[in-house]
Amino acid sequence: MAEKKQLKRKGSIMSVRDDVKVLDCTIRDGGLCNNFNFSDEFIRELYETNIKCGVDYMEFGYKASTRLFKESDFGKWKFCKEEDIRSIVGDNPSDMKISVMADVGRCDYKIDFLPKKESVIDMVRVACYIHQIPAAIQMINYLHDLGYETCCNIMAVSTVNLLELEEALQMVCQSHVDVIYLVDSYGSLYPETTSRFTEIYLSYAEETHKMLGFHGHNNQNLAFANTIEALSYGISYLDATCQGMGRGAGNCAMELLLGFLKNPKYNIYSLLQFIEKYMIPLKEQGVKWGYDLQYLFTGQLNRHPRAAIAFTRDNRDDYFEFYKEMLEDTY
Amino acid sequence: MAEKKQLKRKGSIMSVRDDVKVLDCTIRDGGLCNNFNFSDEFIRELYETNIKCGVDYMEFGYKASTRLFKESDFGKWKFCKEEDIRSIVGDNPSDMKISVMADVGRCDYKIDFLPKKESVIDMVRVACYIHQIPAAIQMINYLHDLGYETCCNIMAVSTVNLLELEEALQMVCQSHVDVIYLVDSYGSLYPETTSRFTEIYLSYAEETHKMLGFHGHNNQNLAFANTIEALSYGISYLDATCQGMGRGAGNCAMELLLGFLKNPKYNIYSLLQFIEKYMIPLKEQGVKWGYDLQYLFTGQLNRHPRAAIAFTRDNRDDYFEFYKEMLEDTY
Q1: Nearest CA to CA, how far is B286 from chain A (Å)?
Q2: What's the whole-number average pLDDT of chain B?
Q3: Is B35 left (phi over 0), alpha (psi -120 to 50) or beta?
Q4: Which residues contact B227 (CB under 8 A, 6 or more apart)?
Q5: For chain B, does the N or the C end have fewer beta carbons within 10 angstroms?
C-alpha cells in the first residue's frame, strides 16, 4: 500500500487551479437515456455551447463494437465514427478537446481507432470493471501508442474490496494512462466517503504523476457535492452533463459545476440558452432522468440502478413496495 | 474570538451518535409553499408517520402574531394555537417532541405562549436576523423561564460579516438557549464552507455546552450534502422535510437523511407510504418546491430566493433572461 499523506484541501473555494478540467459527457451518459438518438442540430449546438462556456473536453459518445451492437438499434453516438464526429466539428479548430469512451470487452479498439494524427479525437476513456484491469491496461497502452490521451474509468468501485482496488490502482499507475477516474457508478458515495476514496487514489497517483478524475451519479442528490469535494482534495478532471442528463438519476449538472468554479474561463450564459432551447424540450418529449426515490434506494443500498430504471420505465409510483422488493433482493 | 480546535469528524459514517436529533419541519417550511393550508388528515398522518420513523422533533408551524397577520389569509399552522395542536396530538403521548417557530418581531410571545406545563409544545425555535440578536436573547430567556427548550436560528448568516457573527454567537452562548442553528437561508453554502461555519459555531458552543443544529436549503442541490457534512463535524440537530418540501428550492429531504443515519431507531418505511399517499398528490395539486435553475442562481449569488420564487409563480422558463436580471441587480 502506498504511503498516505494527510488529506488536505488543495487551495480554497476561491482558488483557480490550472489542473482543473471540465468534461461534458452529456451525449455519452445522457445517450443512455435515449439510445443516443440526438439530432445533429442538438450535437452541433452543444459543441458550440461547450466551447463558449469554457468546457475543456466534450465526450461524443461510445466507440462500441458494431459486431456486438446492431447499428440500427442506436443513434450514431454509440459508435462515434470518425466521419460522424467530423461532420459536426470539422477539424475541431477550437481549444476544446474531444473524447470518446470505450468499454473493455465491448469495443474493437484495434480496428476502430485510427492513429491519433488521422483522428479528431484527442482522448479515449477506457471504462472497465475491476476484474478487467489487465485488459484495460493493454488497451490503454495500445491507444497511448497510437498517440491518444487515455483515461482509466474503473466502475462500481463502491462494491470492490479495498485490497483489490489498491492493487488495481498500483497496476494502472504503472501503465501509460494519463488520468484515472474515481467513478461512483451507483451514486452511493457521500462527501465523506468521496474524500476517503480520493485519499486512496491520490496516494497512488501522486507518486506516479498521474492525474485523477471524478464521475458522480445523483442517486442521493450528491453528484455535485461529491464532485466538488473530490475537487477540493486534489482531483482535477470533473465530469458533468447539461441538467445532469445521464443514466437513471443522472450526473453532476454542468450548470452547478460551472457556477461553482472560479476560473473566469468558465461561464454558464450559453449553457442556459442551450438548456432552454434543447434540454427542456428533450424532457418534454419524455426522455427521463434525474433524482427520484427509486434511485435513492439503489444508491443507499449500493446497487446497480437497473431495477430503478425499470421502475421508472414502467411508470410505477409504488415506492414503498419497490423499496421492500429491493431489500428482499439485497443478499 | 474563541479558540478554534482542529476540525475533526465526530465518529465515522457508521457511527450511531446519541446527540443526533432529527427535526421534521415539513409543515413549517413547507407551509411557506401553500400558505399553511394542510388538511387535518395530512397533519395527523404526518404526526403518526414521524413517530413511526423515529423522528425526534416535529415542528407544527409558526407562532405568528394574529395582530400582524390576518388569520383568514393563512392555514392555522401559521399560528399554532394550543388547541389546534392538541386536536392532532392530544397530550402527545409519544416520545417525539413538538416544536414551533417564532420569528423575532413577528410574534406576541408574551401573550401567546402558555407556561410549558400547560402546553403540549416542548421546544420553541426563535428565528432572527443578526441585528435582532439582543431581541432574540430576551425572547429565549423568557421562553426558557416558561419552561420550554429553546433554539436560536440565526438566518442568512452567509451574508453576515464574520466579526458580527462571532459576537452574536458569543452573546447567544451566554443566554439560556439550548440549541443554536446554523441556517443556510439562501442555499449558498457548499460542503466545504459548511464545515468552516461549523468550526466557528463549535468554537463557541462547545465551551458553553450548547448544542448545534443545521437547517439547509436546496438551491444548489446541496441541502442533504451540507446537512451530513455539518453532522460529521459535530452538529447534532438536523432539519429535514418530506421530499424536501420547503420554500423555493426546499430543504434537506427526510428520506435522504433517514436513509443515511445509522441509528436503527430511524427508518423510512412509513415515510414512503406517507409520500405516496400525501406528498405526491400535493405536487399534483400544483404546490411547487424543489431544485430548479432559478434557485441555483440565487444560491450561487448568495441572495434571498424571492425573485426566483416570483419567477416560479409566474411560470417563466426564460432562465437566461432571468439570470441576466439577477446579475444586473446584484450590486
Answers
A1: 18
A2: 96
A3: left
A4: B214, B216, B238, B239, B240, B252, B257
A5: C
